Amino acid sequence: MEIRPGSVKQARLEAGLSLGQVAQGDISRTAIYFVETGKSKPSMETLQLIATRTSKPMEFFLGEDEGINGVAALAEIERLVAVGDNARAVTAAEALLARNKEAKTAAQARFFMANALVRMGQPGRGRGAASAARAFFEQAGDGLMVAECLGWEAGAAQLMQDPAALGLIEDALARCRSINPVPVVTEARLLAILGHVRVSRHEYAKAIQAYEQAISVGAAFADLRRLSYVYGALSLAYQESGRYAQAAHYSRRAMALYETLRDRLNIAWAENNLALLVFKQGDLAGALRHAQSALGTIEELGVEAGRAHVLMTMAELELARSDHAAATAYATAALEIAERTGETTNMGEAHVWLGRIAAAQGDEAAVDAEFAAAFERFEVGQATEWQTRAHASYAELLEARGDLRTANRHLRLAIAAAGVREAPVQDVRIAMA
Prior knowledge:
By secondary structure, the protein is mainly α. The protein has 23 helices and no strands.
C-alpha cells in the first residue's frame, strides 16, 4: 500500500515506542524499519497492526491518492464492524464522509455506519444512514446493496417499534431472492431480521420458522456474531411459545458466543431474556440476579434504546415479591426513557405495568387511568398485539374487583383485536441486536 512518507516513524515516535515494541514478534523489527524508511510498502495487515500499536487511525498513514479514493479507509471501517468495535467504526465513517465526497464511497461508508449504529442501540441514526445509502444504490442499480440497506432499515425500525419494519424486511427479502443466483449470506441475514420483527409482533411460530430457515442456509452463518443473535432470538421465541427446554438450550448457546466475542451489550440482553425464563420456571431470586446484572451493564454502557425492556423486567420481578415502591420506580423509569427515545409501544407497556402495580395496591382509579393511557399509546403505535394483551389483562383486573360487565367488554375488545386468535395474556420484553 502507498502510505504518506514518514508517517510510520512519526506515529511510532509520538507513541513513544521502539521498533521492537511496534513489531512485538508479529513481524520483524527490520520490516518496520524498511517501511519507515520507504524501502518497502506495508500490506494492509501490517499497516493495521502498526495503526493499532501506535493508536493512530488508518487515515493517518494514507497517501494523498489513497485517502481520496477511500478504499483502505472503507476496508478499515468494515473490519471494525466485523470485530464489533462499533464506536470506532462510526467515528471512522464520519471522518471519511467529512473528507471524501465521492458518491459511491460515501454510500458504502453510510452503509457500514448504519450497521454499527443499529448494533450500538442508536436506531434513529442508523436508519437514516441506511436510507441515505440505499438511495445511491437504487440509482446505481445495485440490487444486492439495496436489499442489504433495506435489511438494516428494517432492523432499525424494529428497534424503534415502527410497524413499517415488516414491510421493509419483506421488500428486502423479495429483492434478495430476485437475484440469480440468490446471495445466501444476505438471505440468511435478512431471514434473521425477519425473525426479530416477527418476535416483536409476538408472532412466535413465524419467528421460529424464519430463524430456522436462516440457519438452514448453511455456511451463511460463519459469522459467529450473527449466529449468536439468532440463537438469542430463538431462545426468546421458544420461551414465549412455552417451550422452555428449547429456550434454555439456545439461551446457553447464545451466551457462550457472546462471551467468546466479548459482546457486553448482547450479554446484557441475553441476561434479561434469561431472567424472564428463570422467573417463569419459578426462580424469582435467580431472575432478579440476571435482571440486575443486565440493567447494570446497560447503564454502564450508556445505552438508552431498549433499556425500558430491562426496567420493566425489574418492575415485574419487584411486583412479584410485593415491593410496590421499587416496582413503581422501575416502571416509571421505563416510561420516562421510552418517552425520551420515542418508543411508543414501550410507553404503553410501562403504563400497563403501572396499572398492575396500582391494582396490587388497591388503587382502582389509578388502574383505570394507567390502562386508558396504555390503550392510547398502543393505538398511536398501531401495536395490535400489545393492545390485545392489555385488554385481556385489564379484563382480569376488572373481574377481580367485581366489575364483570366492563370486564366482559374488554375481553370482547381483546378477542376482536386478536381476530380469530385467542387473546394472549403473557408479557414479553424484547431487545434485538
